[in-house]
Amino acid sequence: KCGGVGVISVASHIVGPQMGEIVAAVQAGDTDRAEAIDAQLRDLYAALFVTANPILTKAALHMLGVIPSAALRLPLVEATPGQRDILATVLEHQGILTRQ
C-alpha cells in the first residue's frame, strides 16, 4: 500500500497463499480486499507471537505435518501445551487445521 513490492512475514510460512493474495490485491490497487484478508488473519498473527518466534511457527508447521518435529535449538524450547492449544484453536478457526 505504501509502495513496497512484497512482504517478509512470519505468518507466510502458514498462510503463504493468503499473503500472496494480499500482495496481488495491493498491486492491483484493491486495497480494500488486501485489508479484508489481513483483518481475517489478525488472530493468527497474534497467536504466532504468544511467545518468542519461531516457537509457535514451528509448532504450527509440525501440527500441519509440514515438518517432522517442533524441536528447537537451545535456548529456545518447544511450545507449552497451553500455547499449542491457543495456536490450534486459531488454526481451526482459520480452517487450516482439523483436530481429531
Structure, described:
56% of the residues lie in helices and 0% in strands. The protein contains four helices and no strands. The chain has helices at residues 12-27, 31-48, 55-63, 81-93. Helix 1 packs antiparallel against helix 2 and helix 3 (55-63) packs across helix 4. The N and C termini lie far apart (40 Å). 19% of the residues are buried.
Name a few traits of the molecule.
single chain; 100 residues; mainly alpha; 4 helices; 0% strand
Cα-atom Rg, whole angstroms?
A: 15 Å
Outline the biggest β-sheet: none
Shape: elongated
Task: Tell me the helix content.
Answer: 55-70%
Number of helices: 4
Query: Strand tally, please?
Result: 0
Order of helices and strands: HHHH
Taking all residues together, what is the mean pLDDT?
92
What is this structure's SSE topology?
Elements: H1 12-27, H2 31-48, H3 55-63, H4 81-93
Helix pairs in contact: 1-2, 2-4, 3-4
TL;DR of this structure?
The chain has 100 residues and is mostly helical. It has 4 helices and no strands.
